[in-house]
Amino acid sequence: MPSDLRTRKRLAMRQAISNAATRLFFARGFDHVTIDEIAKEADVGRMTVFNHFPRKEDMFFDRDDEARDNLLNALRQRAPEISPVEAFRLLAHRLIADKAPYVEFSARSAEFMNTIVASEALKARARQTRDELTGQTAAALAETTGQAEDANARLTASLLLATWSTAYAEALRTLQHTGDTKAANASFLALIDQGTLGVKAAMAGTPYA
Amino acid sequence: MPSDLRTRKRLAMRQAISNAATRLFFARGFDHVTIDEIAKEADVGRMTVFNHFPRKEDMFFDRDDEARDNLLNALRQRAPEISPVEAFRLLAHRLIADKAPYVEFSARSAEFMNTIVASEALKARARQTRDELTGQTAAALAETTGQAEDANARLTASLLLATWSTAYAEALRTLQHTGDTKAANASFLALIDQGTLGVKAAMAGTPYA
DNA sequence: TTTAAATATATACTCAGTACATGTTTTGCT
DNA sequence: AGCAAAACATGTACTGAGTATATATTTAAA
Fold first, then answer.
1. Among partner residues B120, B162, B200, which is closest to A162 by beta-carbon distance?
2. Model pTM?
């Protein structure tokens, strides 16, 4: 909690808007909530909403930065004897073991995903985030192996992120079918292991495997 | 060319609008052309534009269906002794050998890609198309191997499409650096081979590899 | 306490996309 | 040929996100 009055007020207002928006989004679906309604619900001016959230989607995705930083840090700060692909795999296992909020396969996260799937705008934003993360991952891969960013780095990043998102989707699917978080976790990790195994094979002979 | 007068007129009008739009898009960038300008350039009413192209992006991406059909057909109509992943790999080689228009790495396609990269809207549409194709590919994979669509099919599709788009991007990068179409082709196929090798490893023991 | 920077908010705009109504052309039927 | 229905072109009026800009108010800092 920052001591600065201005900053505290600013964050409080941001949070108030985000809360109002989230409430409305889950109740009625992202596409059926207007910025005007959010402003009214949060009792602020319309322009204030844009002031804090340049895009409507920004009110929905709030923890993206955390997930991104986790991934990039895991690649950058891995032990030298661990390959990047293996570091990625271990990160997935660690996140599940630690019950990190954004890979917790619970009723809450299923609702989250359902809201995304129901909205083209949210799906588009999710894809954009993933693409940008793929690029950043390629850069991090090259950087931590002392290479210039090359085709190998980009293919590795692309395959890893494809693996991640497939595993994530699969875990949520398992959750919806079985209602069992443990089973969802297991299917997530199984696909992570399967995908990374493939990536290692593709990257054999490079510093990434 | 359909003999039907109505259909011919309709297609002609559609083409006229598409041509006008394309001209403007390449000249000024997708985001800096309004629907009104396109309508005026094609000398039709604004609503007519929407009549033929529900979304602005539809005027830009015109050959997507062709690319999609090629991929799905290659998977569906492969010889029984060829695995789906191998069929994918062979398709890529065949398209290059046949100089298929949408995988021709020429100055024209570089300009095309530059226009896409300059526009968030076009990038978003490209991602959407790719995601949808991934889903259709998973379904086709399951179908042609007589499986129910499962996690293996989805992981395979996801890794294959990731491979494709990375290879495509890499080829264009090579083209821009070297100006050499042959070099671009070579880098495309090298990445396709590398990626599919990884997918085969990941899918060993399944009917997809 | 005065000044400067941040912040909240109003007004007025742009542009894609939708809803709906109305002509106009083509077709298929008699 | 002549007519009714379908398909198509197009106008008007709207919604809703996002931008530009101006202004007022609050907080920080001197």
1. B162
2. 0.95
* Tokens 């499962």, residue located: B150
Contacts of A155 in chain B (CB under 8 A): 163, 166-167, 170, 191, 194-195
CB-to-strand C under 7 Å, chain A 29-48 = 44-48
Chain B residues lying within 8 Å of A195, measured CB to CB:
155, 159, 202
Phi and psi angles of residue A141, each rounded to the nearest 5 degrees, phi first: -60, -50
Question: What is the pLDDT at residue B195?
Answer: 98
Backbone phi, psi, residue B128, to 5°? -60, -50
* Cα-to-chain-centroid distance, residue B192: 15
Tens of pLDDT, residues B79-89: 999 999 999 99
- Angstrom distance (rounded) from CA B93 to CA B79: 16
Using the CB atom, is residue B32 less than 7 Å from strand C?
A: no
Q: Which domains does chain A have, with CATH numbers?
A: 5-60 (1.10.10.60), 64-202 (1.10.357)
Contact call for residues A58 and A38 (beta carbons, < 8 A): no
Write out pLDDT tens, residues A100-116.
988 999 999 999 999 99
What size, in residues, is chain B?
209
> What letter does residue B59 receive in the DSSP assignment?
G
CA of B127 vs chain A CAs: smallest distance (Å): 7
